[in-house]
Amino acid sequence: MTAPVEKDQTIPVVAARRHVEHDMLLAALPHPIVVVGEAERIIYANQAAEQFFSMSIAVMRRQTLREAVGFACPLVALVDQVRRSGASVNEYGIEITLPRIEGSRLADIYAGPVPEQGGLTIIMVQQRSMAQMIERHLTHRAAARTVSGMAAVLAHEIKNPLSGIRGAAQLLEPGVKDDDRVLTQLICSETDRIRNLVDRMEVFGDERPLVLEPVNIHAVLDHVCRLAQAGFASGMPISAEYDPSLPPVPANRDKLIQAFLNLLKNAAEAVGELPEPGRIVLRTAFRPGVRMTVPGTTARVALPLMIEIEDTGIGVPDHLKQHLFDPFVTTKTRGSGLGLALVAKIIRDHGGVIEFESERRRTVFRVLLPLQAESAKPTGKGPKDA
Known about the structure:
5-stranded mixed beta sheet, 5-stranded antiparallel beta sheet, alpha+beta, Heat Shock Protein 90, Beta-Lactamase, 2 domains, single chain
């Protein structure tokens, strides 16, 4: 009579162990997983889903799917379709609105019924940021090369005539009336302004390979932070979240300082436009997964070193997001629109990728750089399209 009792006690133990194993497996997945029950009630979400929706599982269980994603979100219609048809659905490029962060994210969706669990629907979300990053990265590179060619023409065809125009105005100035002298001074000041703009663009025409050496990325960021706090970011809170285990990056230290100082200046200006105090975060981490081909070789270089500059400023207007790294595109009233184009060129010259995310009160510029490239033999040309 004891055997049946032992068997009955073993079944719930095995079931509990399997339940724990399933939870561990779902928690380890990098993609958000959500299970929806009757009346669109959320009954399960893994850790990735908690991060994606910016709420804990305890909060999500008190909400319906419609409340979590906002009114008229296509995700709700997909779940309804699965319930009606009983079949799985794949949908690509769905914009998921997130009322909690007052923003939206583009993602690919899988939704299907849970086998042997009537009324339950499982949803897997795959955010499309990585694919879009590579696509926009190629656009950024094309824009940088366009500016390079334009800079070479401008330097040759414009700077020399400008010198002649300015010299002529200076020669005329002593012989004109006081009222007309203002005009000659205006000619000189405007030619100086155009010359300075051309000087800035000449940087884009420099296609010489960078001289690289092992650089401590945290030392670079600390130096940039000190420069910022001594100048344009004086009094602003800038925090650092570094991964101390990162090895050196092959880079040109001065160029990296120039790039990250430009990004930090943009963040400080965005935060400075707010009526209330904001903050800036410098972050580093190891993020494997992105690889690019080095031209002229068969090697593929990993880009696992991630550097982020995050701010709580006003964000990037939607109409500028697709063109932010193009030359002469700026959100500043007195900006030239060359700063981010120059940053894109510097990161490109290092064989890296630059990408950004922007929503209300959260903008992140993300740079991915290689750690090493021993297998790549130099060809005398900078990295180009993957």
